[in-house]
Amino acid sequence: MSVIRPGDERFHYSDGSHKWIPPDPDYDQDVWDEMVRQHKQQHLDEIRQRRRPHSSGDKPSPGRYAKPDRPS
């Protein structure tokens, strides 16, 4: 889950979903679509950054980021 930062309200409804229709009917839909795509990419980048392992080098800790080994 991502955080809605100050200023991001224009891209979100009260339930946290994204607005794909511009708030002003005279606003260019293609421009709005691109702004929302870039905004959503910021969310994804933030989530990806939080998922990166923080210790043990680049190796994920078992059970948290990697599938545990299964007995044969």
Which short descriptors sum up this protein?
elongated, mainly alpha
List the helices and strands and how they pair.
Elements: H1 29-51
Compact summary:
This protein is mostly helical and 72 residues long.
What do you see in this structure?
- There is one protein chain.
- The chain has 72 residues and is mainly α.
- It is built from one helix and no strands.
- The longest helix is centred in the middle third of the chain and has 23 residues.
- The model has no long low-confidence stretch (mean pLDDT 78).
| SS class | mainly alpha
How is the main sheet built?
none
Beta-strand content bin: under 5%
Q: Tell me the total number of β-strands.
A: 0
**Helix residue percentage:** 25-40%
Question: How would you spell out the order of helices and strands?
Answer: H
Q: Please, what is the average pLDDT?
A: 78
Spans of at least 5 consecutive residues with low confidence: none
Rg over C-alpha atoms, rounded to the nearest angstrom: 18 Å
User: N- to C-terminal separation?
Assistant: 36 Å
DSSP helical segment count: 1
* Shape field: elongated
